[in-house]
Amino acid sequence: MSASYGRRRNVVGAHYGVGDWLAQRLSAALMAVFTLVLLLQLILPGPLGYDKWAGIFAAQWMKVLTFAVVVALGWHAWIGMRNIFMDYVKPIGVRLVLMAAAITWLLGCMGWAVQVLWRL
Q1: Is residue 50 packed enough to be buried (19+ CB in 10 Å), middle (13-18) or exposed (0-12)?
Q2: pTM for the complete prediction?
Q3: What span, in angstroms and rounded, lies between the C-alpha atoms of 20 and 31?
Q4: CA-based, 20 to 30 A from 67: which of 55, 61, 76, 83?
C-alpha cells in the first residue's frame, strides 16, 4: 500500500549519472596515458625541434592514439559542458542554442585534428 504525501514531485534531468562519471574517468585515463607516452618520447636524446615532433607523430599508431585522445577529449568536454548547461542555463531555447554551438565547435575541432594528423 502506498501513501501519497503532498503534490506529485516533478523530476527533471536525464539521469546520466554513472555513465557520465565513468565516461569522464575513462577519457581522463586515456588522456593521462597519452601524456605519458608523449613525455617518454620527448625525453629521448636529441634536439627538441620540428624534426623530433614530426618523427613522434609520423608513426601510424601515434596518429591513431592521438585521434582517440582527441575524441576522448571532445566527449569529456561535451559531458562537462552539457552538465553545466543543464544545471545553470534555465531557458530551454538558450540552452539548446548553447548545446548546439558546443557540439558544432567540438566536432569542428575533431575534424581539424583529422586534417592535421593525416594532412587531408
Answers
A1: exposed
A2: 0.79
A3: 16
A4: 83
pLDDT digits over 57-91, tens only? 999 999 999 999 999 999 999 999 999 999 999 99
The number of distinct structural domains making up the chain is 1
Close Cβ partners of 63 (under 8 Å, ≥ 6 residues apart): 57, 117, 118
| 3-state DSSP percent of the chain in helix, strand and coil, to 5 | 75, 0, 25
Domain boundaries, position 97: 18-118
How far is 36 from 39, CA to CA, in rounded Å?
5
C-alpha pair distances (Å), 96 with each of 30, 63, 87, 105 = 29, 33, 13, 14
Inside any domain, residue 2: no
Identify whether 109 is part of a domain: yes
Closest Cα partner for 78 from 19, 33, 32? 19
Is 10 within a domain? no
